[in-house]
């Protein structure tokens, strides 16, 4: 996959600068780290100069050729060269003077032999040729080359590392947009913006199988393998370090960022200072702490992968012992000490391991949390370790839906915990678990009892606010849900150091409440924000969960393109560890998105996988999964079965105590043709969907039109498009042509935002845009306040043509000017 040269990415500014200098005849020197892309940029300049008619020569200097006088520029020398160097220089310069718009590009000019460097200097300063040189930072250059920028005869420009957006562009080019976001983020970080390192890391991943394709998506799993080629890239710096410095680098690699107090207890001050002086280690201040880390992320990956297992165990044991013997004032000290005890592979401190397990669970790293909890239990942690392990297994989808420790048969454990330290945290967690089990009233009661306790620890508040907030939303009590969310978010914000993922946990509960209450614009904004936050920290489980929430929200909106992409990403990230049993509902939701796109067969296959015996879904999501089944049946052409399944989903939601979800399901039944039998129940529920259902049942366009604008304001794009399209069709059949045109135009715009979604209501309406694309474009600019002349300038049209388009729009809408047109566009 890496055979072709990459597109030049992230170098637009530097390319323009060099080409502008070439146009002025000003010489330039590009400097930068090895592999940063100097040669690629210089090659692009050379190619463009030749294409523009320049006589452009390319010179490559090498370490081997540096011992041969004139070796690098031998192809530029006239035949029958003379011993007189000055005469030779004049003849070379004369050749360039006779050439058409001469230019010379010298790659790795720091490796030029002195004679070649003199030729390059002479051409740069005594001929009309434009010269572009590349040099590597930190390398000695011949005096003739250094003189170019020191004497002001050339401008030296540093080529910086590539920005993250450029790395993303290269990865998108390589993987055709099929690399998961966490892998993309990690590769960007580890490569450090260096395209050569990125290329070698990718090749190492392909060769070792660390980078592989699964179900159509590429994913990086595990550490960067220390292949021979990758090792060579960083060997020059690491191999020259010496044993003492190498020892310091190994300690840092096992624990970075590492507190200097710990590092100084395991290595000599002289070796630490030498590592920093050589640019291999960086010492930073973080608040009151001084931390050590390696200068490049890839160095740590290579060092860790080349260390022997016994050396890793030895250093991990030393780090654990040093941390445990310290005051351990920082919250993550216990987690780090616990991880090092696991790496050391021997019995550890049960209490520290248990604390570490809880912290890992709070960070949604369930795999690590499980290993720490088991280690605590094996080290004598007793029933407390068993309890934490049970909670972790429940969150990981490895317990029955009645919940391992909170079900009917575990009353004794509950009684023991009720009088134990940390009971509020356990109760907060219980609220969260009860919510996933769709015992919303119980989850709300338990959660609010924790929230009402003045001395409840922050993590207890976070779990309780997540469970109780979601439960209140599912029950339809939006004011209560909002108050709980604000309380939980305030605590998570104030105690961010103690509960680093507190805001995202509380956000999960908030999103479920927003989704249940059809507040999709708010839900989409929240999902996108939390997804990006999780991605920055490369937290796979959290990114996977939020990708699933984002996909479910986009599907509810009708944005089938984003829904399918996000849900596929979620499934690729949740595959290893089914956090909170999200895999089954994500599969079903993906089936629903594909069904709305018209692919019923693939949707049916995904539904079969979602309901397979090896996958368990929390009761919370089962009504939603039934709705995905309904839309799959509709895509397969079985409308009556689809409507019946939607009604069954409503019954299930009612049995599970989810009145808001019952409303969704009943309205889906109405959308599938069963409005007469469901609109009364929707009215009794006080559902947002009730007026539209009544309009469908009575074939009354007015409530449908009103509902369409309400739906659109809440972000229910597909629902709004359906309601408007149906209302427009009904207005047209009633002979209200102008009103029909207004409503149908709005429906067409809404439907476009759903990227090809198909539903029975949209298909039955025969929806099409009333205005042509150009008419709509001109009308929209006019409504925005632009004059006809401004519109003409912006679109490259004549003023008369703009006025003609506006006239046709007025006629179709039955309006007499811009003011009335504005009201038609924004009723």
UniProtKB/TrEMBL annotation:
GO BP term (any one): regulation of DNA-templated transcription
SUPFAM superfamilies: C-terminal effector domain of the bipartite response regulators (SSF46894), P-loop containing nucleoside triphosphate hydrolases (SSF52540)
GO molecular function list: DNA binding
Residue ranges of domain HTH luxR-type in the record: 764-827
Top-level taxon: Bacteria
Protein name: AAA domain-containing protein
Organism for this UniProt entry: Amycolatopsis xylanica
């Amino acid at each position: 996959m890496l055979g072709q040269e990459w597109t030049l990415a992230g170098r637009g500014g530097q390319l323009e600068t060099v080409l502008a200098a070439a146009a002025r005849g000003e010489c330039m020197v590009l400097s930068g780290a090895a592999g940063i892309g100097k040669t690629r940029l210089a090659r692009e300049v050379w190619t463009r100069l030749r294409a523009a008619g320049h006589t452009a020569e390319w010179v490559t200097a090498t370490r081997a050729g540096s011992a041969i006088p004139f070796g690098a520029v031998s192809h530029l020398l006239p035949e029958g060269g003379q011993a007189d160097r000055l005469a030779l220089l004049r003849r070379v310069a004369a050749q360039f003077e006779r050439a058409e718009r001469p230019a010379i590009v010298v790659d790795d000019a720091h490796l030029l032999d002195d004679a070649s460097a003199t030729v390059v200097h002479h051409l740069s300063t005594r001929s009309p040729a434009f010269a572009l040189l590349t040099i590597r930072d930190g390398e000695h250059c011949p005096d003739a080359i250094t003189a170019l920028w020191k004497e002001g005869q050339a401008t030296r420009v540093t080529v910086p590392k590539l920005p993250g957006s450029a790395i993303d562009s290269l990865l998108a080019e390589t993987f055709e947009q099929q690399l998961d976001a966490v892998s993309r983020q990690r590769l960007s970080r580890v490569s450090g913006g260096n395209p050569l390192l990125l290329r070698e890391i990718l090749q190492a991943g392909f060769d070792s199988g660390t980078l592989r394709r699964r179900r159509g998506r590429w994913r990086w799993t595990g550490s960067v393998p220390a292949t021979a080629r990758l090792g060579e890239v960083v060997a020059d710096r690491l191999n020259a370090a010496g044993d003492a410095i190498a020892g310091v680098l190994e300690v840092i690699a096992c624990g970075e960022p590492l507190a200097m107090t710990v590092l100084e207890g395991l290595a000599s001050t002289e070796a630490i200072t030498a590592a920093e002086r050589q640019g291999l280690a960086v010492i930073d201040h973080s608040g009151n702490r001084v931390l050590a880390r390696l200068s490049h992320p890839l160095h740590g990956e290579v060092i860790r992968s080349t260390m022997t297992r016994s050396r890793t165990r030895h250093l991990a044991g030393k780090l654990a012992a040093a941390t445990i013997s310290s005051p351990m004032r920082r919250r993550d000290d216990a987690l780090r000490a616990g991880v090092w005890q696991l790496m050391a592979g021997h019995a550890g401190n049960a209490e520290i391991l248990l604390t570490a397990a809880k912290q890992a669970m709070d960070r949604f790293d369930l795999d690590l949390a499980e290993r720490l909890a088991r280690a605590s239990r094996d080290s004598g942690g007793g029933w407390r370790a068993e309890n934490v392990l049970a909670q972790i297994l429940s969150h990981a989808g490895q317990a029955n839906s009645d919940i391992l420790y909170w079900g009917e048969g575990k009353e004794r454990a509950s009684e023991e915990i009720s009088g134990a330290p940390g009971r509020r945290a356990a109760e907060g967690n219980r609220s969260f678990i009860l919510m996933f089990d769709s015992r919303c009233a119980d989850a709300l009661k338990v959660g609010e009892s924790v929230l009402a306790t003045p001395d409840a620890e922050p993590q207890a508040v976070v779990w309780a606010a997540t469970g109780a907030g979601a439960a209140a939303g599912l029950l339809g009590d939006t004011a209560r849900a909002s108050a709980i969310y604000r309380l939980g978010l305030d605590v998570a914000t104030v105690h961010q150091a103690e509960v680093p993922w507190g805001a995202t946990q509380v956000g999960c509960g908030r999103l479920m409440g927003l989704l249940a209450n059809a507040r999709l614009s708010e839900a989409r904004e929240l999902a996108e924000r939390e997804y990006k936050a999780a991605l920055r920290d490369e937290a796979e489980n959290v990114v996977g969960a939020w990708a699933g929430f984002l996909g479910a929200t986009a599907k509810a909106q009708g944005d089938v393109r984003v829904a399918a992409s996000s849900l596929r990403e979620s499934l690729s990230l949740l595959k290893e560890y089914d956090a909170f049993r999200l895999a089954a509902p994500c599969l079903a939701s993906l089936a629903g998105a594909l069904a709305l796109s018209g692919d019923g067969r693939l949707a049916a296959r995904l539904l079969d996988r979602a309901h397979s015996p090896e996958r368990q879904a929390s009761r919370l999501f089962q009504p939603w999964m039934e709705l995905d089944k309904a839309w799959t049946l509709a895509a397969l052409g079985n409308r009556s079965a689809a409507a019946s399944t939607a009604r069954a989903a409503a019954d299930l939601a009612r049995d599970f105590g989810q009145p808001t979800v019952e409303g969704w399901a009943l309205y889906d039944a109405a959308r599938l043709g069963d409005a007469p039998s469901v609109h009364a129940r929707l009215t009794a529920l006080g559902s947002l969907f009730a007026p539209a259902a009544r309009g469908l049942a009575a074939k009354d366009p007015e409530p449908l039109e009103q509902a369409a604008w309400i739906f659109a304001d809440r972000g229910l794009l597909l629902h709004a498009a359906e309601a408007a399209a149906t209302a427009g069709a009904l207005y047209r059949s009633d002979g209200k042509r102008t009103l029909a045109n207004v409503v149908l135009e709005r429906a067409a715009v809404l439907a476009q935002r759903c990227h090809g979604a198909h539903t029975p209501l949209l298909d039955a309406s025969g929806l099409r845009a009333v205005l042509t694309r150009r008419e709509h474009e001109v009308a929209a600019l006019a409504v925005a306040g632009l004059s006809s002349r401004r519109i003409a300038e912006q679109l490259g049209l004549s003023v008369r043509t703009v006025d003609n388009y506006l006239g046709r729009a007025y006629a179709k809408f039955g309006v007499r000017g811009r003011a009335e047109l504005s009201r038609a566009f924004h009723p």
